[in-house]
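User: Continuing from earlier, I have the next pair ready.

Assistant: Great, send them over.

User: Here they are, in order.

Assistant: Folding the first of the pair now:
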Amino acid sequence: MKPLEFTWTIHKRSEGKTLRDYLLKDQLISRQALTDIKFKGGDLKVNDEQVTVRYILKAGDIVTVIFPVEEISEYMEPIELPLSVLYEDDHFLVVDKPAGLPTIPSRFRSKESLAQGILHYYEENQIASTIHAVNRLDRNTSGIVLFAKHRYGHSLLSRQQKEGKLKRTYVALCHGIPDPRSGTIDAPIGRKEGSIIERCIRPDGQQAKTHYKVLASYKEYAFLKLRLETGRTHQIRVHMAHIGHPLLGDDLYGGTLQFIERQALHSQTLAFYHPFNEKRIEIQAPLPEDMEVWIDR
């Protein structure tokens, strides 16, 4: 399988930089990736000749970076699973995860995971990659999961995520009708004492901020749109329970199973700037049937 390769032409503004500075600061290749290129079978070339990172760039130089072939994980067995692919190109794969399937396998609970299904998909399509999940969803949350097909793409989109440039929205069903019908929940989240799973609001927790808006209301519940400014574990579930409106089906945080047998939470939209084709990508995942049945009743 062909290794990943990128080529750039040096402009006047980058003249005089070392190749190291250009790759680290201009192309945002990590120091670890540069080390791996040197020691794990990659290559650096300028004008088709091998160079070191100390090379001084000139305008018009053609820089080629060849990344080492991806090392396929030995700890995850590829498993054939039905995948709903929402978007795919040479760099990224976006899928619609069903509820009940973990993103990454657990040593203790799961026999199969979305990641293992992705590995099988890569094998079937001769894609030389391992798992690079840019985001993850809880086992019983459905919706959009974004995978990078190589570590460079993962690094660039992880940076976007940290900078708040990777935009995701969720929809959910909650008990009762929040008042006001739109607002922001700003409350720190930490691990609950004595539990390895459950989270709670606590003063020494990590900052967490969730924006919500009621899209529709019913006698016993409401349909919400939510946007996160931070990405804490169980953030939406904890925040909605905190304001007295736990999600339907979320019995861990006070919801009941009367309407749905899992937390009624779906990652619906994703938008990001594609760092390689320089376009904005927007993706939407359809509402799953177990939530849709409670809308427009």
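And the other member of the pair:
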Amino acid sequence: MLNKIKLWKNQQQSSSLHERMLQIEEQPVPSHVAIIMDGNGRWAKKRALPRVAGHHEGMKVVRKITRLASKMGINTLTLYAFSTENWKRPKTEVDYLLKLPEEFLGTFLPELIEENVRVTMMGYKENLPSYTINAIEKAIQDTKDNTGLVLNFALNYGSRAEIVDAVKRVLNDCQKGILESDEVNEDLFSSYLMTSDLTDPDLLIRTSGEIRLSNFMLWQLAYSEFWFTEVLWPDFSEQHFIEAIEAYQNRQRRFGGV
């Protein structure tokens, strides 16, 4: 009897998701969605599990949300996987986080290729272990010709460092005579950032109840819509993602205008 009830609930949930997806398709979806995947450690602590268990569970959510974003026709999904500040965490946790790309892409890469997803990365490869870099570079190479969703991992990434480095490169090009100072504007500066090949995010999602940017895409998020939720990342579901997209579609974007 309990199995029948569970099956009925799953069928109802699937039907509801399908109906909401059809409604979403009637309006423009955000071209670029960025997510700060927060709350893995707290999820594990609530269950008296090691923090790495939360990161492992969060990896499963990445798969679900990537599939859904691809199905929705979203062009780019940027995931804040590891920040330049995360090195301060306990070594066992850092080591596990840096092994996740190898584990994740090792099992999920064939599906990404089949789904026409293209993998990219932004961040600093310096200090990253070879197994992390090799896993990412293999995924980038194997999906480089795909034309669907861009799955962009922000790995060993920090926005302030990115901006400072961009300023240095602009100054260097000015000193070399490649640029004139009066040529420098917002569009040109953006071309010196790690996201030069991407559009700015239309929507930022952050989980776990934290309401801050945590040094993530500070320049690129200037006019993005923000959506915050108390839900911890390992509990983040397709329904939550759809809710975020619905909220975005119900907002009027003015970009500083009236």
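Worth noting for the second one:
The CA atoms of residues 91 and 97 lie 10 Å apart. DSSP finds eight helices and six strands in the chain.
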